[in-house]
Amino acid sequence: MPELPEVETIRRYLATHLVGQTICRALLYTKALRRPIPALNRILPHLAVSDVRRLGKYLLICFDQGTLIMHFGMSGRLYWTPNNVKRSKHDHLDMVLSDNSRLRYNDPRRFGVLLWHVGAINQHSLFAKLGPEPLSQQLSSCYLYGFASAKKTAIKPLLLNQDFIAGIGNIYASEILFRARIHPARLANNIADSEWVLLVSAIKQVLKTAIQAGGSSIKDFVSVNGQLGAFQSQHAVYARTSQPCIICGSPIQALLQRQRISFYCPGCQILPSAGCTGQARH
DNA sequence: CTTTGCACCTGTTGGC
DNA sequence: TGCCAACAGGTGCAAA
Question: Domain boundaries in chain A?
């Protein structure tokens, strides 16, 4: 479910409501998700939350003694509930706070991750190859060009590679390429300098706007407080197959790339035909 | 080394 | 109504 804007929405809520609170008890119901879960029921009690951070799609709940690393996979979420609410299916962790309310981690598909890390977070192997934060200055057209301009892969699957840029997922990859007017099947090594510049600004603009809207709620994303995201109403292409493009009116098309669906406008995002790859011709 | 295909899970949806 | 295949916001690893 959550890509960068959704995780950032969760982070902002927790930064306001969780920092400073102490975890009195932790109840762990599950041994493993995508990876084995450490004994958080023994680790977390009596620790006070000092900060809540985000790296790409990872949420970091920081304590002086270490960091709880969370990833939400496709279906993970956090929700706050009173003490007396019965545990529901696929709840994996309860963090009981001093007022007896509980912060619950729930993940039906179990693609998420719960880990504990002591020491500098950047040293964790999960983050060793993680690409730059898209909203930082590190993400520039020079960076994109340097990483990608020799790659023989299509740009859309490349945008999903977290080693390239941290935090972009399937919704925002399509939305970003639409705003940059780049066809999802364009090969990275055929993208022009001017297009990398367009791409950088599309990345920043789409993600910034999506964060302001509280993320996208397609099926079931809700923030910790149950708040739905609103960015789905601004989706130009995602899940809009055969609906008219908001710019040119052409029907939006879907395309399967590496088992993942991409959406694009055939009028605005032109794929150069073979033999017309932008090289000089006479 | 780079690039692709698939497995990992469960729930929901849509066609017959 | 019921059944079953297809699909869903992600990632890691095996294979080509």
Answer: 4-127, 141-281
Nearest nucleotide (CA of A187 to C1'): B3
Strands A253-257 and A102-106: unpaired
Measuring from the CA of residue A158 to each C1' atom, give the nucleotide at the shortest distance: B3
Please give the pLDDT value at position A274.
Answer: 52
Strand C bases, protein C-beta under 7 A: 7-12
A264 is written with which tokens?
A: 């694009």
- The residue type found at A15 is A
- Is A174 within 8 Å of A160 (Cβ atoms)? no
Question: How far: A247 CA to C13 C1' (Å)?
Answer: 41
Q: Please give the nucleotide, over all strands, whose C1' is closest to the CA of residue A151.
A: B2
User: Is residue A77 a contact partner of residue A22, using CB atoms and an 8 Å limit?
Assistant: no
What's the whole-model pTM score?
0.95
**A223, two tokens:** 């923030």
Q: How many CB atoms lie within 10 A of CB A225?
A: 11
Residues A67-120: pLDDT tens digits?
999 999 999 999 999 989 999 999 999 999 999 999 999 999 999 999 999 999
Any strand B atom closer than 7 Å to A260 CB: no
> Residue for token digits 């001017």?
A194
For residue A80, what are its two tokens? 């706050």
SS3 A18: coil
What's the CA–C1' distance between A126 and C3, in Å? 42
Q: CA at A257, C1' at B5: how many angstroms apart?
A: 11
Look at domain A141-281 and name its CATH class. mainly alpha
> 3.20.190.10, 3.30.70.100, 3.40.50.2300, 3.30.470.30: which CATH number matches A4-127?
3.20.190.10
Q: Decide: helix, strand or coil at residue A237.
A: coil
